[in-house]
Amino acid sequence: MSGFGDPPPDLDRPGFGTPAAAGDDPPTAPAVPPAPVPESPAATARVSARVNGELRTAEVEPRTLLSDCLRHQLGLTGTKVGCEDGTCGSCTVQLDGEPVLACLTFAIQVDQAQITTIEGLPPGRLQESFHEHHALQCGFCTAGMLLTLDAYLREHPEPTDAQLKEALAGNLCRCTGYAPIIEAVRNR
Question: What does the mean pLDDT of the chain come to?
Answer without folding.
Answer: 88
